[in-house]
Structures are given as structure tokens and as C-alpha cells.
Write a structure and sequence with these properties.
alpha+beta; 3 helices
């Protein structure tokens, strides 16, 4: 049985996505731009987990009120956009979930036999 992917986030390659413009649609129009920031699956060892949080790199920090209430203002990347980017790059076992700190994660794994060489 495979362990819960959320419990594997600490050992994953975490991608911090930055976009040229702040998305108004949760990043759905920026799937290609998100995908361009992901490693090619052929360069990773089989089974390597890659995770993308919903928070944009370089975005503002959450206020104390937002941290306490768990609500955050500002742009976030929709999980569907992140999962679509992972799929377009060839990742497998794609999924998502919300961690205890309220971060929404999307993840995928490098497939078996995908490495070059």
C-alpha cells in the first residue's frame, strides 16, 4: 500500500511557481507557464514526487488574521491548473489535497522507466 502523498511532501521536490501576471482565473489560463517551471520527468529518478502549492512565489505574506482564520486573500493557483501542468509534462499518480496548515497541494510522480540514459 502506498503511503498518503500528503505525508510525503517534505521529501518531495517542491516547485514554487511564479507567473508573469497575477492570475484572475486561478491560473487556468497559465497552465503552459506553470508547466514550463516543472522538471522534465526524464531527468528525475523513477517515483520522484513533485509537489506544487497553491501559493504563488513572490506573493504577499498572509496577515495574522488570515493565518488565524485560515482564510487568505490574494491570488492562488487552482488545483486543476497545477494538476493539468503536471499531466502535460508526463507525471503520473497525479493528485491533490489540503495539508494541516491549509496549503492546497497538487502532486505527481515521475513514472517508472522514464529516465534518460
Amino acid at each position: 500500500m502506498n503511503p498518503d502523498p500528503l505525508s510525503q511532501i517534505e521529501g518531495a521536490i517542491v516547485v514554487h511557481v511564479s507567473l508573469a501576471t497575477e492570475p484572475e482565473d486561478g491560473g487556468m489560463g497559465a497552465v503552459r507557464e506553470i508547466a514550463s517551471q516543472l522538471a522534465e520527468v526524464s531527468t528525475l529518478p523513477p517515483g520522484t514526487m513533485v509537489a506544487i502549492s497553491d501559493r504563488l512565489q513572490g506573493g504577499r505574506k498572509r496577515s495574522m488574521l488570515e493565518r488565524v482564520t485560515g482564510r487568505a486573500a490574494g491570488a492562488k493557483l487552482h488545483r486543476a491548473a497545477r494538476c493539468t501542468a503536471l499531466l502535460s509534462k508526463g507525471y503520473v499518480r497525479i493528485g491533490g489535497g489540503v495539508a494541516s496548515d491549509k496549503t492546497d497541494w497538487a502532486w505527481g510522480f515521475a513514472p517508472e522507466g522514464a529516465t534518460d540514459g
